[in-house]
Amino acid sequence: MKRQNVRTLSLVVCTFTYLLIGAAVFDALESDTESKRWEVLSDMKNGLVRKYNITPEDYHMIEIVIIENKPHKAGPQWKFAGAFYFATVVLAMIGYGHSTPVTVGGKAFCMAYAMVGIPLGLVMFQSIGERLNKFASVVIRRAKCYLRCNTTEATEMNLMFATGMLSSIIITTGAAVFSRYEGWSYFDSFYYCFVTLTTIGFGDYVALQNDQALTSKPGYVALSLVFILFGLAVVAASINLLVLRFMTMQAEESARDEDKDGSKTVLPIDGHIIASRQRSHDDQASVCSCNCLGNKTCESGALLPPTVRSHRLLLERSLSTELIERASV
Questions:
Q1: What is the DSSP letter of 275?
Q2: Between vectors from CA 135 to CA 133 and to CA 141, what angle results, nearest 5°?
Q3: What is the pLDDT along the chain (329 residues), one digit of tens a residue?
Q4: Residues 6 or more apart from 224 whose CB is under 8 A from it?
Q5: Closest by alpha carbon to 329, among 258, 302, 320?
């Protein structure tokens, strides 16, 4: 089995194993808390129903009103500021789910907008990431020259370290800002920044959803949008390095596989296949790779075998009289 096939199979096995481990850990961490919260909410619901003598139909209507009213706490969601925020979330594939189109025209336009906008955003973030990596490589080279290092080239590990440090700075700084403006704890703000910049976008924490922030705090809205766009560009730079590294590994594996499978090559001549076995370096029976079709000796001075000379004569005659079915050197 080729190395590429083994690597692909290993990746599939590792991914599913990772999924199983993640499911087991989340089950252990969240299952008991979920059960306790459900019991508390059920007790509160039953207490309210008994206290105010609410029918199941009325309670269902109250639930609908509360759920539908929740997105409107931040003010109008579809004025220009809120619409621009939503368009950014769509293009960046974050998808908080805090507000969604409800009209048929809005849903149709959202699908068409996403089909064009998502590839455009991916290309833009990838291009910005490449420019950031280029800038980081220049800075690293100059820093190494200033420090008089033995090698001044910026390696992949240097670039990964630089983009990783920049990503950490952006997330930690953004967490401090959102913690102040949103009233979240620093850990919850850090969690929000990480979920946002990795485009997971659960939607359990969404910025600009309190105190009419979309309409009353334009500076905060701009800061949030800059954080999302610039942060995603930096993350794209890190991902670009990982993709390049993976492509390099894949090219190396392909070269090794070709070297191993290169003991027998197939050469097409005028529609027919000539199978020739490559000689090893120890075999000095004059495998000629020069262009001297008419000469009897190659560049090393070795005599050409008769079969090679006959093949060259046939090639000079354009293979008009007889097709070559087997050639051996």
A1: E
A2: 100
A3: 577 788 889 989 999 999 999 999 999 999 999 999 999 999 999 999 999 999 999 999 999 888 877 766 667 788 898 899 999 999 999 999 888 898 999 999 999 999 999 999 989 988 888 888 889 899 999 998 988 888 888 888 888 888 889 999 999 999 999 999 999 999 999 999 999 999 999 999 999 888 788 888 889 999 999 999 999 988 888 877 877 777 777 777 777 767 776 544 444 444 444 444 444 444 443 333 334 444 444 444 444 444 444 444 444 444 444 444 444 33
A4: 85, 207, 208
A5: 302
